[in-house]
């Protein structure tokens, strides 16, 4: 049953009862009783009373007996009724992990996808698309000029002439190796991808690339024969014109660039990008028309015997210079000004002189009219959209000013209100799912897959959710649909307040939060503010216990936060017995650490951290069936990464029989876990109790270390220390006072298993009580052993 949450009533006072760095809060009556006891009892009893006082914390915002009075979430308690059924099923599943690995469905899916196929949404394909756009624009800009002015392929032009066909040949191969989309389904089968490419773009790409290679080969043959045949050279250059068909590839690349702009560039820059794109389009079309106009005047047949290139003359320095006697650069500028005049419908000083030129002239005018009007309409639409956005913003500001004025709000409040609203209106907020009406058209399955793909990277940072995704991705996809969502906070917004009941856990995905605790509502000596950075989990205790916030979280910048609803999480995972049993065991161990947290064996818990709830700690304390399931999953991943067979088999055997515990961390690392407990006892004169040797093989072996041993499964740190006092250190049981516990984690690569071994070492500090007489047991040491120990020391 859930413990009562009645709050402490009456006057609350704060007393500095310090053990380590902890502060206690008591009701006034309790404080008076404590002071009377301190006056009556001796110094030893006083120390014990202060130590006992520091282990309790009372606040008007927390239930009595916090945190020991916190119960497990009722939803998890209800689900534990099927424990025996799930346990039997879990044992059968754990025994098959070693043989089967992945489920049949997952294996079937992995067999259908070839390892060499490339995801079309990968970063490599996006980068390749951008490079393709650059190469394509280079070709379509340089090639018309080279053909129109009959420039020979020498120097860097010769290098580019061989480089671009090679690039597009590689592009054809990559297209065969890149998956395709069929509606909402990603197809990665090599045969299906090849058939799709052969039916669509392959013929065009093959013709363009073939013409490139043929033109180069003909040019090389002509050059090797001692001269360049005009017909062969013209044929090779005309073959290169077919590459203009490849301009259709720009549609694919432009979609990539558009998605990149919408994803990474602020909304206010879209208008600038549109203007730059329109201006660049005008220049490029003018360039194409200029090259075409020059080529018509040079190479096309004339029915009048005249050509504009022969008739046109430019006045330079008071004399008329024929067009063909001017330099190539100036010729290009004359043709370019003619083309720009066609688009802008301005004055033109070059007139056609034959039928072909007249036809091209009329055609260019029509193209210029259509292209120019299209650009003007696009520019007008972009400006109109910008003005509409500004109008809505200005309307909101005017309405705010009117509201503040009509309610006669004081300027000390009105000015900050106006400043904050103007700042937030200027900020670009991340779109939420509800802001995209088009998503309502998706099927439930595809919408669930979309949400899972967005939330999956953030869930994978938590080892437990990473395990669930590996074992049953479809179940976690349902969890994302039902229990997981995003919260968008602006600067100064509160995520939660102190004293409120916590219903969800959070993970900061972007931005920064500040977490504040004050002595009146939290077990701290002085106000504390902690900066919370992306990747940090908050209030995980809310998923497993009836948690109450002991601090306040506020956004210091615009934040994006992943939220997991505790109640809906239980409903979602209850459909799978394996995941549910793992979650129930995780909940049990987490709750034990929440209720046992507090001095001297652990710090007080808060919304950011509960002591000793690291994933490795929790798995170490779980029941053997769950440990085997988690361990076999980790070993399977180890085999997948190419781990040595002998070491892997030995580790698998140890995990299977319960001798070793292996887990996968939130970063994806595979580690072996060993938990240790040590006791650091210090006397008033500063001396520390240590073990200097151990007995083995009928001799004394030097081993200077703190007394301790391996922690047993399902054993808390305080319980392990008590076991140490009940066994090896009975002579200290009633003569020391525990003052605190620190965690010292170390990782060493195991030579035997070839994986990292993490040692979870909990060091408990204790002080010998004043005037306590320690009667330690003694043992005799021979002369040889004494000499050996002296040398070792």
TrEMBL record:
Q: Which Gene3D superfamilies match?
A: 1.10.287.70
Checking SUPFAM superfamilies in the record gives:
cAMP-binding domain-like (SSF51206), Voltage-gated potassium channels (SSF81324)
Disordered: annotated span: 1-21
Which Gene Ontology terms cover its molecular function?
A: voltage-gated potassium channel activity
InterPro entries assigned to the protein according to its UniProt record, in alphabetical order? cNMP-bd_dom_sf (IPR018490), K/Na_HCN_channel (IPR051413)
Question: What sections of the protein cross the membrane?
Answer: 125-147, 159-181, 201-221, 273-296, 360-383
Name the residue ranges with Low complexity bias: 1-18
Q: Which GO biological process annotations does it have?
A: regulation of membrane depolarization; sodium ion transmembrane transport
Q: What GO CC annotations are associated with the protein?
A: HCN channel complex
Which keywords fit this entry according to its UniProt record?
Answer: Membrane, Transmembrane, Transmembrane helix
What is the name listed in the Swiss-Prot or TrEMBL entry for this protein? Answer: Ion transport domain-containing protein
């Amino acid at each position: 049953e859930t413990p009562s949450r009645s709050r402490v009533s009456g006057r609350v006072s704060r007393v500095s009862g310090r053990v380590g760095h902890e502060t206690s809060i008591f009701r006034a009556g309790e404080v008076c009783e404590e002071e009377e006891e301190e006056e009556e009892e001796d110094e030893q009893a006083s120390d014990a009373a202060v130590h006992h006082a520091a282990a309790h914390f009372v606040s008007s915002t927390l239930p009595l007996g916090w945190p020991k009075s916190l119960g497990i979430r009722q939803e998890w308690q209800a689900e534990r009724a099927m424990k025996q059924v799930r346990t039997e099923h879990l044992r059968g599943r754990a025994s098959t992990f070693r043989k089967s690995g992945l489920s049949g469905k997952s294996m079937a899916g992995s067999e259908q996808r070839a390892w060499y196929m490339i995801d079309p949404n990968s970063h490599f394909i996006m980068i390749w698309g951008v490079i393709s756009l650059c190469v394509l624009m280079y070709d379509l800009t340089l090639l018309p000029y080279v053909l129109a002015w009959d420039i020979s392929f020498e120097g860097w032009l010769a290098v580019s002439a061989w480089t671009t066909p090679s690039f597009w040949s590689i592009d054809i191969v990559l297209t065969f190796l890149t998956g395709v989309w069929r509606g909402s389904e990603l197809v990665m089968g090599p045969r299906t991808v090849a058939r799709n490419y052969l039916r669509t773009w392959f013929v065009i790409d093959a013709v363009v690339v073939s013409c490139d290679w043929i033109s180069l080969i003909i040019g090389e043959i002509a050059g090797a024969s001692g001269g360049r045949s005009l017909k062969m050279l013209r044929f090779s250059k005309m073959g290169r014109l077919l590459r203009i068909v490849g301009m259709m590839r720009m549609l694919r690349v432009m979609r990539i660039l558009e998605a990149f702009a919408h994803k990474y560039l602020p909304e206010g820059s879209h208008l600038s990008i549109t203007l730059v794109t329109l201006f660049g389009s005008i220049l490029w079309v003018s360039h194409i028309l200029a090259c075409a106009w020059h080529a018509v005047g040079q190479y096309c047949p004339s029915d009048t015997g005249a050509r504009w290139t022969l008739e046109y003359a430019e006045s330079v320095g008071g004399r008329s210079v024929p067009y063909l006697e001017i330099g190539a650069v100036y010729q290009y500028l004359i043709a370019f000004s003619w083309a720009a005049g066609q688009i802008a419908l301005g004055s033109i000083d070059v007139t056609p002189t034959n039928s072909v030129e007249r036809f091209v002239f009329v055609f260019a005018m029509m193209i210029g009219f259509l292209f120019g009007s299209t650009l003007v309409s696009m520019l007008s639409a972009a400006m109109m959209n910008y003005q509409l956005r500004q109008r809505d913003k200005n309307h909101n500001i005017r309405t705010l000013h009117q509201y503040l004025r009509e309610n006669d709000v004081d300027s000390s409040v009105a000015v900050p209100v106006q400043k904050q609203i103007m700042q937030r209106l200027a900020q670009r907020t991340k779109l939420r799912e509800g802001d995209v009406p088009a998503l309502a058209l998706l099927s439930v399955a595809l919408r669930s897959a979309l949400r899972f793909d967005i939330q999956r990277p953030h869930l994978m940072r938590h080892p437990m959710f990473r395990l669930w995704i590996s074992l049953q991705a479809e179940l976690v996809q349902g969890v994302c649909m039902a229990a997981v969502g995003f919260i968008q906070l602006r600067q100064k917004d509160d995520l939660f307040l102190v004293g409120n009941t916590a219903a969800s856990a959070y993970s900061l995905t972007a931005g920064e939060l500040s977490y504040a605790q004050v002595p009146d509502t939290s077990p701290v000596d002085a106000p504390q503010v902690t900066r919370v950075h992306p990747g940090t989990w908050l209030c995980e205790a809310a998923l497993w216990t009836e948690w109450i916030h002991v601090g306040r979280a506020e956004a210091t910048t615009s934040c994006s936060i992943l939220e997991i609803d505790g109640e809906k999480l239980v409903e979602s995972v209850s459909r799978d017995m394996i995941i549910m049993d793992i979650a129930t065991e995780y909940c049990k161990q987490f709750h034990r650490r929440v209720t046992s947290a507090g001095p001297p064996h652990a710090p007080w818990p808060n919304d950011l951290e509960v002591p000793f709830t690291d994933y490795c700690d929790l798995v170490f304390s779980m029941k053997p069936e769950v440990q085997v399931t988690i361990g076999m999953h980790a070993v399977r991943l180890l085999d997948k990464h190419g781990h040595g067979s002998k070491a892997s088999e030995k580790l698998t055997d140890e995990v299977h029989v319960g001798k070793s515990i292996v887990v996968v961390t939130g970063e994806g690392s595979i580690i072996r876990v060993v938990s240790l407990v040590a006791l650091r006892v210090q006397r008033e004169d500063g001396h520390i109790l240590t073990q200097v040797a151990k007995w083995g093989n009928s001799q004394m072996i030097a081993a200077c270390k703190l007394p301790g041993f391996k922690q047993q499964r399902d054993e808390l740190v305080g319980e392990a220390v008590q076991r140490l006092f009940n066994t090896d250190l009975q002579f200290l049981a009633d003569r020391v006072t525990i003052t605190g516990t620190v965690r010292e984690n170390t990782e060493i690569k195991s030579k035997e298993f070839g994986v990292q071994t993490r040692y979870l070492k909990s060091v408990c500090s204790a002080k010998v009580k004043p005037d306590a007489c320690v009667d330690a047991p003694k043992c005799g040491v021979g002369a040889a052993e004494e000499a050996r120990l002296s040398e070792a020391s």
